[in-house]
């Protein structure tokens, strides 16, 4: 299901000279949001705040240093914990490694948790060009089964991954990470950005 928005205008005020917008939004999982504001831009900003309050993003390394089955168990527990606090939208960047594993766990849990939604934030169209054949199959299966796919750019450009990572932080109120605490790569950038914005980070790396 694609997210949908609609709105209508009405006149308010003593002399009916003020225009207001009555805004309706249906998210990819069927959740609805409604608001009234003096401009469409204000309505959409309110919608984005609502979505962010219900969203969790994932970030992690491409190479996993622990047994996958144990990490899957930790992911399930953390996702369920977030779900029980009201989180419904779970966002992954679709990279090889932790991103892929997290997406697959969300898809498994979606069968049992109402309104749970997977969103894939793609840095550029065709990011899987250098993936291995097996990783490409997993990636495309995730895209096919995701509730929503957001493509940030039609083509690759310098720093497109950092832009994707910043998007993940700016559109979430919680971060689930797999971060070894060292290095200066994308995972480190994302965790530090989240911490600078006082967004809670749950690190599953042990």
UniProtKB/TrEMBL annotation:
UniProt-listed InterPro entries: YspA
Recorded superkingdom: Bacteria
Protein name per its UniProtKB record: DUF1273 family protein
